[in-house]
Amino acid sequence: MKTYQQIITLTERRRGFHLITSEVERALPQIVQIRAGMCQVFIRHTSASLTINENADPTVRKDFEMFFNKTVRENDPDYVHDYEGADDMPAHLKASLLGSSVLVPIRNGELALGTWQGIYLCEHRNQGGERSLVITAWGD
What we know:
Order of helices and strands: EEHEEHHEEEE
CATH topology: Jelly Rolls
Low-confidence stretches: none
CATH class: Mainly Beta
CATH architecture: Sandwich
InterPro entries: UPF0047_YjbQ-like (IPR001602), YjbQ-like_sf (IPR035917)
Family: Belongs to the UPF0047 family.
Number of strands: 8
Mean pLDDT: 97
Largest sheet: 5 strands, antiparallel
Number of helices: 3
Organism: Flavihumibacter solisilvae
Shape: elongated
Strand content: 35-45%
Protein name: Secondary thiamine-phosphate synthase
Number of domains: 1
Oligomer: single chain
Structural class: alpha+beta
């Protein structure tokens, strides 16, 4: 079994949902050596998250942002944790709802995503800064 790992830093992105599949693939070119395996992408932050969804129509990503903003509202007077602004606690909640990692099968040296699937960086802060990912691939 082969195992490869890389830590990458994504440039700062505006708040919203951003496709990062190609950045993940470029970061770990050794995936081509794996016939059958898995690739885990983990984000090392508590106010951003990862998910897999539609990669073709950008309105899906806009609707994701709209849904999460309606579901987890800012400026809730019941939030105690607000040290970094109105988007701070909502960002933590959104990140917990979506999760900190995705797991993608590797098949014949490629990520085995579906035709219309891509990996999203879900940036929940107005100014989240750079984001760090740990990408680990393993298999035969």
